[in-house]
Write a structure and sequence with these properties.
Helix content is about 60%, strand content about 10%. The chain is of the alpha+beta class. Helix 3 crosses helix 6 and helix 16 packs antiparallel against helix 18. The protein binds flavin-adenine dinucleotide.
Length: about 600
Amino acid sequence: MPHYQPPLRDMHFVLDELLDLNAELAQLPAHAGLDATTVHQVLEEGGKFAAERLFPLNQTGDRGGRQYDAATSSVTTPRGFRDAYQQYVAAGWPSLACDPAYGGQGLPVVLNNAFYEMLNAANQAWTMYPGLSHGAYECLHAHGSEAQKQLYLPRLVSGEWTGTMCLTEAHCGTDLGLLRTRAEPQPDGSYRLTGNKIFISAGEHDMAANIVHLVLARLPDAPSGTRGISLFVVPKFLPDAQGEPGERNAIGCGAIEHKMGIHGNATCQINLDGAKGWLIGEPHRGLNAMFVMMNAARLGVGMQSLGLTEVAYQNALAYARERAQGRSLSGTKASSAPADPIIVHPDVRRMLMTARAYAEGGRAFTSYVALMIDRELNHPDDSVRREAADEVALLTPIVKAFLTDNAWIATSEALQVFGGHGYIAEWGMEQYVRDARINMIYEGTNTIQSLDLLGRKVLMDQGEKLRRFGEKIRHFIVAQSADPAMAEFITPLADLAEKLVKLTAEIGGKAAADPEEMGAAAVPYLRVAGHLVYAYFFARMAKLSLTRAAGGDPFYQAKLATARFYFARLLPETAMLIRQARSGAASLMAMDFS
Ligand SMILES: Cc1cc2nc3c(=O)[nH]c(=O)nc-3n(C[C@H](O)[C@H](O)[C@H](O)COP(=O)(O)OP(=O)(O)OC[C@H]3O[C@@H](n4cnc5c(N)ncnc54)[C@H](O)[C@@H]3O)c2cc1C
């Protein structure tokens, strides 16, 4: 049986010591009264909920799955999911980072983010139900009319109702410009929506009284392509005059998908047969409105992968300490036992350290991005808000793709630590690998993230956002240059920063002549950029740990050991990636597949 221990000490290290959360929050009037003690208390309670309530439902949810009843188009979630959700709602967890004007607690995104790491580590499939609701909340909060906000937000904030995002259709996934669902205006100002959506997460279930579907569709006069897509709110039950769930709307679940992982989450085909809905925001501007939700969801997917990385690491570590096979190459370590624990073997340690480093790097990076979102939302200075927004835009595709690729690697390495036992369901490791795989696909595949990073975020603004983030790295490097103990971290960081600048210029030049060059370089480019960001955060964590490890605290010694492993074993991947990115489009485009 797997286990999970919320990594609270690591979270405190990142939030308090690395990011100086207290000082950051003091600059944000909305959070000025919040101190580290309160943050710790919330995380401790949240960790208990994750570990004690959700984690025990993870394997049973995977095996029991969810049931679809065709006669009633209803979905029954796995045993225990509903009760856990009710407890989650009763404790006020859905409202943590929501606007107090709609019943929220107004706590910062960075705190909610850390909470979500623990929820996802404990049970990704369950966490998708409230996770999608939070995305729907953010979208309506940003783009809904005042009446829509008054009606839907308090119920999404309390968790009484849940939300979905309905984009995908059978013929249209990445290319949303192809979508066909139609919306006909009605005399009363509402719309009738007709069409079929597929792959809709949490699209139907028995956990909440109503489901608020956010649906992309086309108006009759819509231009073709992505410029002709509008966004609608389509509730499962039409709210009555008091706002309570009333008449059943003509939107429902036609089937659920049978899939590789996240079995506890209902992935639904959603049919709209003249369903009543209301336009959100401007006509034909639906994709822009949906982007609010998609950006939040992309950070959310990064947190799914961080949670899986951490829990897989914890279990692999425990197993490697116990499992006895072979003897250490440098001589017997457990002389009273017939064999040494496998943790003595260098390659087992490599696998463990890979997962550990990806968890620690990912936690530092995503906490930083979440804090930048808090700045973007709440800083009193307009220019600081704009700068933070630019950074979030630049870093979001890296969060989404780099963390999810790394979780695929990390969960697989963690499984490998178990040998054949990792492949057997009982230990829970194969579920982590299966669950991690979807994170690279939904919310825009990782290829699409890399095109977004290189094409839109870097080349389209002549590298300006990247340059400004690079300035932060450069300042840090300059500040450390007088400290010889930091040279082992700063030298490779500076080297990679320089190489990324050159690589960007080279690809930019080639892409101007042939756009295929951009498509051919984007995926390795994003991984190089991801490593640069991790190298920066590992160097910063090493700086803190160097001084603090002197006191003999093993926590900081472990932080230093992880940073050293990262620079020695994971960062060198960039040499290969840069060669791949530079190799151009010719070898990809030459084959005549006919
Ligand atoms: C379990 C699950 C849950 C999901 N949940 C939701 C949900 O809640 N709501 C929702 O709306 N959707 C959801 N999806 C859909 C998901 O977002 C899509 O599957 C995803 O966006 C990819 O679309 P597609 O599957 O049609 O693949 P395609 O778009 O057909 O892509 C196939 C391959 O081609 C590549 N490709 C496509 N276009 C390009 C391009 N222009 N350049 C380079 N490469 C390209 C892709 O990267 C991919 O590798 C879910 C899917 C799954 C499996």
